[in-house]
Amino acid sequence: MNALAGDQFVSSSPMKARSYVLTTEGVIVCANGSQEAVCFAFVKAKGEAGCSREELEAGVGKDVCKVGMGNCMKQKWIKKAGDTMVATVDSVDDSTQKELKVVSDSLNPNKNLMNDDNTSCLSDKVLNVLKKRKLVKLEEISHFKITKGPQFALERKKKAADLTKEMLDSGEWKTAQFRPYNFQTVGEKVGGGYLHPLLKVRAEFRKILMEMGFNEMPTNKWVESSFWNFDALFQPQSHPARDAHDTFFIKNPELTRSVPEEYYERVKSMHEKVSWCFGCFIFFSSSSNPSLPHPTQPNPIPTHKHQNREETAPLATGTTSKRGRL
Amino acid sequence: MKNLLRTHTTAISSQMLWKLANQQGGFKPMKYFSIDRVFRNESMDATHLCEFHQVEGVVADYNLSLGDLLGTIETFFNKVGITKLRFKPAFNPYTEPSMEIFGYHPDLKKWTEIGNSGMFRPEMLAPMGLPENVRVIAWGLSLERPTMIKYRIDNIRNLFGHKVELNRTRSAPVCRFD
Question: Which of A64, A77, A242, B58 could join A72 via S-S bond, C-beta 3.0 to 4.6 A?
Fold first, then answer.
């Protein structure tokens, strides 16, 4: 309906109506008569002898008796003589049942409890009493009044939202009907990229370092040769980072193809010369590229010890998480 | 020589220093930096992952001293907003002397290790062919720790990896060090 209204096929206006409907108890009363009428009928049927409260309770039910007896007394339909009750009138007018019937009829769509001026056929006082007795309740009903709209047609034609290339090509745009432009809508959210917090901090660090006159190194490769990662830095064999447990070695390609040969030789001889790292070189070069010169020693020493073991021991044997990360 | 996932960006620094020493026209003083990913095959916890980002600075010049290193580090960290610094002698395989860098953490109210530094050993520089009196100073830190402090993230898994909330990335404010 909203879509039809949007295209002006129909126009609708919201309506609201309030009406009284019967409660469950109200439906029973409407069918059987009010509690007081039921009580009166029971007592009347007993004739001159009347009946006791217990008999009435047993005859009409406890709930009906409770409400009905008091009302009968109030209306002086019955009177008490000692423990027994007798009827004082021949017949009664059960106005409550009649009122409920009026309410019940009003639910029929052809009739309406409300008059044209939105007032009830029953007086407010009567309705309030019924409401108090929980025989009726007020319900609000929303509905719409629908009439033909300015663009009413028997066949629905969808209006174009946008001018397309196809419409221009075919000339359809001359006759096409367009939907009015809605200036109230919020535009679609543009989902651009977002920098990860690490990248934001990196960008800032980079700016600071460039301000300080530093040049960025080309670090755009993750796979490195153990020569550059360890040997060129004279990282000792026993350093925990060099352990297989701390380094991810590459399986394929497993070995480095080439390093600057002259430099490799100089690193090698320095490894052999310096006391603090004596023997390091043997291990790395013997497991290396066969095209490069082999060390003088025929076999690698798997667990070689540094001469200055005391100095490196804390790092070499310490837990892996505590270490210099430089 | 085996191939591996680099355990530090110093693997690149060593190549850059070698190139610097052997470039046409010979050595010229230079300042280098890098911020990139490195890999360590170690157990993971709330503050450690198998991969992290290393920030590294390297200066190669004639007759540099430890004072130059201290000054450079102080300048850098001051710009990052960490003004209270302390240095502690340490051991690194390829630098001597070496210093761990501690910064005063205003939230935790204690001194926390924020980086490592040192002067490259002459034995390491000599094979590269750098002139005799050229010294190389360097310092490094992780990118994760300052980021976690900056964005108040206490578990590294919420910062990096498959458990990162996309909304956190969407709404994270611009990083500024004023």
Answer: A77
